[in-house]
Structure formats: C-alpha cells, structure tokens
Specification:
This protein is mainly alpha-helical. It contains eleven helices and no strands.
Length: 241
C-alpha cells in the first residue's frame, strides 16, 4: 500500500513537458509488453527453441522492472539513474550474449564461447560504470578499457568463432546471426557514445541534462525488444522447416 502511494506521488510530479520521464515510462511499458508476448508464445515452440525465446522474455522483463525504478528515480531527483541502468545492463547484456550461444549450439558452439563473450560483456560494463559514476576524473582510461571489451565482442561475432559457427549452420541461423551482429555493431554503439556525452566534464553540455537518457531509453527498447524479435522469428521459421 505504501509503495502504491509513493509511486502515485512520484508519477504526479511528472510534468506533461517532461519528455525524458515520458521515455522512461514508455520504455517500461514496451519492455513489459514484449515480455508478455515472449512468455505467452513459449508453448508454440519445441524444446530446441523454447529456451532462446524464454531468455528473450527474461531480458525484456528484467529491463521493465529496472525501468519502473528508473522512471521513479528520474521523477524524484531529475537525475540520470546511472546505478539502476548499469544493474540492468549487467544482467541483460550477458543474457544477450547467451542468445548467440543458444542459436549457435546447432553448429557445435561450446561453452567456452559463451564464457568468453560474457567475460567481455562484464568487463565492458564494470569498467564503464567505474568511469561514468565512480572515477569520472579518469573516465578516459576506464572508457578505453570498456571500449576494447566492446570491440572484442564485435570481433568475436563478426569475424571470430561465433561467425564461423554461424556460417557452418547456414540458413535461418546465419540470417538471424547477421541481424544480431548489426544490432551489436550499430545498436550498441549508442552506449559508448552516451558514455562520452553523459560523463561530466566531457560533452555533457552538447546535449543538455537528461537528453542522454532519452537516447539510452530509445536504444534499450530497440536493442532488447529487437533482439528478442529476431530470436522469435528464427524460432518460427525453424519450426516450419
């Protein structure tokens, strides 16, 4: 009851002109709707693809919960909810890496590939958080380490072991893998850009307070829901074959 009252009070503070808060609210609703869609569609798939679709639902569900809290945080303080955002990412990004492994198991993907990609993603996120929230005075160094880890993931899926496995699998798997690769290369690129634009003392003044959150919120919705829809489409096509 108390949580309901507090949430209502926070929502009441959100002005009609608060477009940043609006993107938090829409992001929360979009992620929740996507979760419902993925979870309710599970029964139409066999065991081979059910796990992949389930993970897609978990990614958007975790994001929806965090966006609920991020929306309230923004409404209360008019500050970027950096901590909540990174907690969301540290849970969902490794799950997105897991999606690559799950669809490539058909071509013989080993757990070593999964471990490697999760390791890169954790390094990317932990060092990014250090640079953005803990040690902003040395943001360049932490950002460089985070960027190297990001490009290690890009290399792995475009040219490394994951790419070779996708080519070996061929057909629908290769097609889905390529689309997911573009999500990582183009869609995920907003995050290092947001890191530079959002870190105090760098380029914050170029966009103004809160605008980086708008970019993050839109990118999160496109990347996480889009990732899931690619997996869902792959599962549907594979069921028909």
């Amino acid at each position: 009851m108390l949580n309901t009252i507090l949430s209502s009070a926070l929502i009441a503070k959100m002005l009609p002109t608060d477009y940043v808060g609006f993107t938090f609210f829409v992001g929360c609703m979009a992620m929740m709707a996507a979760s419902a869609f993925f979870f309710l569609s599970l029964n139409q798939f066999d065991k081979k693809w059910r796990t992949s679709v389930l993970v897609s639902g978990l990614i958007t569900f975790i994001a929806a919960v965090h966006y609920f809290y991020m929306r309230d945080y923004w409404a209360s303080f008019q500050e970027s909810p950096t901590f909540f955002r990174y907690v969301d990412w540290i849970l969902t990004v490794p799950l997105m890496c897991l999606e690559f492994y799950l669809i490539l198991k058909i071509a013989g993907a080993k757990k070593s590939l999964l471990s490697k990609m999760i390791f890169y993603s954790v390094i990317m996120l932990v060092t990014g958080y250090f640079g953005e929230a803990v040690y902003p005075e040395s943001a360049q160094i932490w950002g460089l380490i985070s960027g190297i880890a990001y490009f290690a993931i890009v290399y792995e899926i475009w040219l490394g072991e994951a790419s070779k496995l996708a080519k070996a699998a061929g057909g629908n798997v290769l097609e889905a893998h390529k689309i997911l690769c573009w999500f990582v290369l183009v869609g995920w690129a907003i995050y290092p850009l947001g890191y530079m634009l959002g870190t105090e003392g760098w380029y914050t003044s170029m966009l103004g307070k809160g605008n980086v959150d708008v970019a993050y919120n839109i990118a999160d919705a496109i990347n996480k829901i889009g990732f899931g829809l690619v997996i869902y489409s792959l599962a549907v096509k594979s069921q028909k074959d």
